[in-house]
Amino acid sequence: MFLVELLELKYRQFFLSLIMTIDNIVFGNPSQEDYIQIRTQSILDDLFPDLRKMMPPKNSQPGTRQELNEVFDAVNNADPESELFNKWQLLDKSLVPFIKSSFITHGADSEHIHSLLDNVVFDVLPLCTKLKYEFNRPRPAQLAFYYQLKLMPYFSNFAHSSPSYPSGHTLICAVITRVLAHHYPQAEESLHQGLRDLAYSRVAMGTHFPSDNEFSFHVAERIIVHPEFVKKYEL
Predict the structure, then answer these.
(1) Which residue in 58, 68, 167, 224 has the most C-beta neighbors within 10 A?
(2) Under 8 Å between Cβ of 20 and 209
């Protein structure tokens, strides 16, 4: 009887240590470039105290494992030979230049588009980077290793350079979508479709959890009603 109780105790201790180990997994330290963004002041900095309260799911929570399974399925269902996948890779590498080029090609004023989008990125990126390192969430593949899930993401230019939560691509694209839709209402439908495609691509390439995108959408909604942002972009 004593031996059985001892084994049960050892099992509980092992299980608790495993959970603690998984919950202690983080992405890591910022690069020099990210550290510059963290130290950069932005008109959106006053959003940070409230947004930092919106913690990502813990690594050990069942919902996180479910998200990993969703990422795993999306990656395995992606077709790397498709035209759509080629677009995902282009957006991964050159999201803002792609949007600029698309609008200029369809007749938008080049100087206005360049100035508008460069300013959006300048204002949004510091807040995004501060949030990423505040939570320091590991990327899906980092965590999948500890769950013994063979998640093999597609190559990304950014997935190995910053934490997972929120998705920078999705956040910046969401804010750009709202700003451009205001200034170019005729493009609103295609902009929102492009945003949905971009957000899904972050999961299907294995670079982000679905909840990273959800948080990005929430942050974007807070940004586009921020008084200083509304004033600056005439929203």
Answers:
(1) 167
(2) no
Roughly what angle, to the nearest 10 degrees, separates helices 62-77 and 188-204? 100
- Write the burial class of residue 160 (CB in 10 Å: 0-12 exposed, 13-18 middle, 19+ buried): middle
Q: CA distances (Å), 235 to each of 122, 123, 170, 175, 181, in order?
A: 17, 15, 20, 12, 10
- Joined together, the tokens standing for residue 161 give 């350079």
Measured CA to CA in angstroms, residue 205 lies from 82, 96, 156, 174, 226 at distances of 13, 19, 8, 19, 32
Amino acid at 189: E
pLDDT in tens, 75-90: 999 999 999 999 999 9
How do the residues of the chain divide into helix, strand and coil, expressed in percent and rounded to 5? 70, 0, 30
Domains recognised in the chain with CATH numbers:
2-233 (1.20.144.10)
Map tokens 């950014």 to a residue. 158
Tell me, what DSSP letter sits at residue 165? Answer: S
Asked whether residue 9 carries a pLDDT value surpassing 90, the answer given is: no
Question: What's the Cα-to-Cα distance from 132 to each of 76, 88, 119, 136, 169, rounded to whole Å?
Answer: 27, 22, 20, 6, 12
Alpha-carbon 109 to chain mean position: 30
Taking the C-alpha atoms of residue 145 and residue 153, their distance in angstroms, rounded to an integer, is 12
User: What residues contact 127, with CB distance under 8 A and at least 6 apart?
Assistant: 42, 44, 45, 47, 48, 51, 219, 223
Give pTM, 2 decimals: 0.90
208 contacts 179 by C-beta, under 8 angstroms: no
pLDDT exceeds 50 at position 191: yes
